[in-house]
Design a protein that fits this description.
The chain has about 375 residues and is α/β, with parallel strands linked by helices. The chain is built from eleven helices and 15 strands. It folds into three domains: about 1-70, Winged helix-like DNA-binding domain superfamily/Winged helix DNA-binding domain (Arc Repressor Mutant, subunit A), CATH 1.10.10; about 75-185 and about 340-355, ATPase, nucleotide binding domain (Nucleotidyltransferase, domain 5, 2-Layer Sandwich); about 195-335, Nucleotidyltransferase, domain 5, CATH 3.30.420. Helix 1 (about 1-15) crosses helix 2, helix 2 (about 20-30) packs across helix 3 (about 35-45) and helix 9 crosses helix 10 (about 310-320).
């Protein structure tokens, strides 16, 4: 147990603190040099650490050896499976993005077709960055709807036929690593706290505006899923104004989502009619957003998703605050189209950490 404690502490210090000499690393972890040297040898044998190349111009004499975490030892894949598209991000073990890929999907495609398209995009993404799928240590995917803890989509109004599909198992047929599935708004919340507007907040609500509006919640620094994975699904109550978001904004004829995007763009450009539509949508959504704020009293609400343009964020800020008992900070997401994919990457990295830093075994990956 002591050996495993020392190994986990040294690995975490090397990963989170950057490369270091043996003395520096021993100081970070609080171990003796001989103990640290032994632990490093084991981490190098496992392929998790390596000696860094000598720094040029380091002065007279032989420079001290420096060691680093081998972020390239494995990779994670984050997948955003939406109604209209699939997006992928492949990252190293520190979350550094190596590459990405994406494709348009048919909104009416049945689950079998949709999953086949995802698999094809994974192959294309891995080929583009020249990474073998055996290098993947964990995969996580986000999708609209309620996702049970085991990875089954129990409810989804956007994509026909997806309810009842064990998406984690279906995707997992193509991989030997763990495959996780989570609600897209939940993953967007993870991404906002990891690399977005909520990095300094422990209690966060993410409002993810798309065809419908979903909400994800971080409470005490941890994602709150609820017993059945349905936490934050306020859209099932029509009176709270979070369902049919794109349709409410689009108004006219034509493809609803594309028209909604055009209205947002026109509002950002100062078009009076489009701005009126945004104000009406914000008034409609404000009840649901305020309900989350009143229920959780978060440090911050982040508004993201493909329909979260600047005018909508500003209008929500103006309309939600008067409905709340205490001041609420509302910010727009800065992650753009990558929020769900980044949240999936974070979830996959967390799954890897469970193995690397477990103390009841030697940290060997499963």
């Amino acid at each position: 147990m002591l050996r495993r404690l020392n190994s986990a502490a040294t690995l975490r210090a090397l990963r989170d603190g950057g490369e270091a000499t043996l003395s520096e690393l021993a100081g970070r972890v609080g171990l003796s040099r001989p103990t640290t040297e032994g632990v490093l040898g084991e981490l190098i044998r496992r392929g998790l650490a390596a000696e860094s190349a000598p720094r040029p111009g380091a002065g007279v004499g032989r420079p001290a050896r420096r060691y680093r975490f081998r972020a390239e030892a494995g990779h994670v894949l984050g997948i955003d499976i939406g109604a209209r598209r699939v997006r992928l991000l492949i990252c190293d073990l520190t979350g550094e993005i190596i590459g990405g890929h994406g494709a348009v999907l048919d909104v009416q495609a049945p689950p079998r077709e949709r999953i086949a398209a995802v698999r094809a995009e994974v192959r294309a993404c891995l080929a583009a960055v020249r990474i073998d799928r055996r290098s993947l240590w964990a995969i996580a995917a986000g999708t609209p709807g309620v996702v049970a803890p085991g990875g089954t989509v129990t409810s989804c109004t956007i994509m026909p036929g997806l309810a009842g599909v064990h998406l984690a198992r279906e995707l997992g047929r193509s991989f030997s690593c763990p495959v996780l599935v989570e609600n897209d708004a939940n993953l967007a919340a993870l991404a906002e706290r990891w690399r977005g507007a909520a990095r300094d907040a422990d209690d966060v609500v993410c409002v993810y505006a798309a065809l419908h509006t979903g909400t994800g919640a971080i409470i005490g620094g941890r994602l709150h899923r609820g017993r059945h994975g349905a936490a934050g699904e306020l859209g099932v109550l029509p009176e709270l104004g979070l369902s049919d978001t794109a349709a409410a904004l689009a108004g006219g004829t034509g493809p609803v989502f594309d028209q909604a995007v055009r209205v947002l763009g026109a509002a950002a450009g100062g078009d009076a009619e489009a701005m009126a539509a945004v104000r009406a949508l914000a008034a409609r959504m404000s009840r649901g957003v305020a309900a989350m704020a009143l229920a959780l009293d978060p440090d911050m609400i982040v508004v993201g998703g493909p329909l979260a343009g600047g005018p909508l964020v500003a209008e929500l800020r103006r309309r939600v605050r008067p409905l709340c008992l205490s001041p609420v900070r509302i910010e727009g997401s800065r992650l753009g189209d990558e929020s769900v994919g980044l949240g999936a990457v974070r979830l996959a990295l967390d799954r890897i950490d469970e193995d690397l830093f477990r103390l009841d075994r030697d940290g060997t990956r499963t």
